[in-house]
Structure formats: structure tokens, C-alpha cells
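Q: Here's a chain of 464 amino acids. Please give me its 3D structure as C-alpha cells.
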Amino acid sequence: MKVFVFTYLVLISMASAMDNMTDLLRSPPSIPLSNKKAIFVDFQKADYQLNYDYNARQLYIHSKIIFYQPEVGSPIYDLLPTESEIYIDGQKSSAHLVYAPGNVTQYKVLGDQLAVGLHTLEIKHYLNTLVVFENDGVSSAFWMSDLSDRRYLEQFLPTNLEYDRYAMTFYVNFLNFPKQQLLYTNGVVFAGQAYNQYVVQFPTYFTTSSVFFHTSFVGKFNHFTDTYKTIDGRVINILVYNNTGTDLTSYLKLTKSVLAELENDYGQWPHGNITIYAAGSGGMEYCGATMTSYWALPHEITHSYFARGIIPANGNAGWIDEAIASFRDDRYQKRMTPGFNSSQMAGHSVYSRYTDDNAYTLGKRFMEYLNYQEDANGGLKPFLKYYKDKWLHVPYFTQDFINELNAYTGKNYQSDFNRFIYGINQPYRFFEGSTSLEKSFGFEDQHENPHHPKLNLEDLEKLL
């Protein structure tokens, strides 16, 4: 039996070696500590047991994570709530906060130093964020933002950074509940062994920014379901839901229209289904899902190609998908010059974890400039389709985007990116003028975009 277990672990290591290298090559550099190093690792698999207890009015979570560590040191993960228990390879452990160089962000790091190889991390904690118990059940969601630091899955569950793809399974138990609970998610839902138990499996290409998870009790939300046949012949399900009097059929009609447009431009829908919370507020993208207003819906669906189809590996790559989605919103305009002097959209620390909000305006303008430069070759869209097809579900850096653009076009755009996107040896940017879209919404030089307003905790709780 020991021989079998050893052989099995060796086979796991061999089978996952390629994935380890692909993801770990896009991790930030290890962080020197006083007498050791904090090491970025590669999550292989995570099982999350979510126990909602109606009588105790609490959510208790037990997480079990298998990860690969590429060098000796203390492994890094992230979790905002305080852990109640931590075990590494079956032994009790502890964790503390560590700052990235330059105090750009924070992570959790284990106190133990571990060897190279596979390890098992178990964490138990209680969660109060976006968990509201009501008379008929509980309303709870794992909603995220890419515009602030540490606003991905780490708000709720122990997770890794955006560079890392890993298999996730939620085991969701609703204990002592008066009504049936329903799940709205972009995972595949299976009934558990008992009433009000569910198992949710997510694709292996998901990262910390991918998961859409929302639960509430029967009767709180209205639903509308339909199907859509993709250009590659699949029949996918569309779920639209909300708890207001909003006409869900209008959301459905717009969804189908945008899907047809995007499939025509960029190829087959890159996810299994599509889930839309017609919240009437906000706007945040997930893999094949969104919480959105009607006005922002096309923008958010576009993100299932760019942001949650091709995946930024860090904050310095996040500008690309917002620039592309905004470029599409303004109907693929062309401009002879970018219209600004410089920016640092991809010039922040390598540890930066959120998107520079100049992406909506300056980034869009830069895409319009590239569109003009490639006008004789059909504009920028053919390259964007090529890039999406080649890098689908693979985390990327800004430099990957540049390298692919240069190879595809046979030109060298590096100096343009150095000036306008990296901000190398350049003063800060300025505007030459605003497009009609920018003028109409007045966000040509502000730090919030109407597609993605920065909702605080109180705003989000109202949407539960």
C-alpha cells in the first residue's frame, strides 16, 4: 500500500509538472524574510467545505489544499479572515501577514519552512463577510472587484494569486434551514447526499478571480432560463435572475445579441454556460457570469473573453482586458495617436494585484491607436481573436501581449508600449480630448468607471 501511495504521488507530480512551470513562471519573485524566504507556490486542488448553520447563525469553512512548492521556504497563500486552525502535512501550524517589497500588498505566509514538492494545507475559519441570515434562510455571496487590493476570492476562502489555475470543489451544507437554499454559480452543481446539500465543481482553468457564487432561499429571486446554440454547435444554458421587477426577458434578449456579436468577432463562447445576476447596479465579470446593470451587460459579457477567457497574471496585465472591453463599447474607433503623453498602466510593482483604472480611458485610446496602425490589415480585431485563441485560459503578462502582437503583425510596437503603457522615462500623461462616450458619462479623467463602480460592503449587502 505504501508503494502504491508513493507511486501515485510521483505520478501526480509528473502529470502536473507542466502546469506548475506554466503558472509558476508568472508568479512574483520570492520574498526575502529575516532568516528565510516566502515562496509563491502552485495550488493543484482545493476542496472547500462550507457549513452554513441556521441555528448558530454562522458560516464555518474547512479548506483542504494540495500545492506544489518549487523551492525551500515558507509557502504563501492569502486569506483575509483570521484562521482558527491551520495544519500543514497533518501537523499544526500558524501563519502571519507578510508585506510585498515596497509595501505594495500583503499575503499570508506559513511559519513552517517546507521542502520542494507536494504539500497539504488545511485551514478552518469562520466567515462573516457578505453572509446575512434572514427569517427564511441565508443570503451569501463571494463577490469580487479588480479595482482594489485583496478583493478576489481571498476575501472569503484561502486561495492563491491570479497567476495560478487550480481545480476547486465546494461542498455546501445548509444545516437546520427552514427553506431550501438555491445556488447561483458558474460551477457545475450536483445534489449532495442529504437535503440542502450541494457539491459545486469548477473548471481547472479557474483562478482566484474566476468564481461566481451566490446563495439565497427559494422565493427570494425571480429566474429566467433559456438556451443558446454556440457557433461550434454546443447548446449552453443562460440563467438570468434578480429580486426586483426588472424585465428579465430584456436581459436575455441583449445577452443573446451580444453573444452572437462576440462569437462572430472572437470565436466560440469560451465557457460552459452563462449566469447573469441582473442586479441593476455594479458590474463585475466572472468566468461565464456577471453581476451587472442592463447598461453594463455587453461590457461584462465581453470580459468572459478578455479577463476571464484570457487571464491577466497580475495587476500590471489587468489594463488589457478593460481597454479591450472599453474599445468594444465605443465601437472600435481609430485614432492616429494615443492622445495622451504617457501612463504606467503596466509599470507598477510586479507585486501589484489590481487593475490601473486608467485602462478604461487611456487603455482604450491605446487600443484605438493600434486599431489605426493595423487598419490596412483589418484593424486590431483579427489579432485579438488570434490572441484569445492562443492564450485562452492561460495567465499572461503585458509583455506576452506585446510579443504576440509583434509576431502577428511583423512590426515592432515595443517602443510604443514602453512610452504609453509602461511609462519608461516618461512624465505623467495628459489628455488631448475626449470621445463622445467619455464626454457623455464624464469619466475621461476620473478614477471610477460606470461599468465597474466601486461598491462598498454596505452596497453589496443590499444586493444579497
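Q: Can you summarize the key feature?
A: The longest helix spans residues 2-24.
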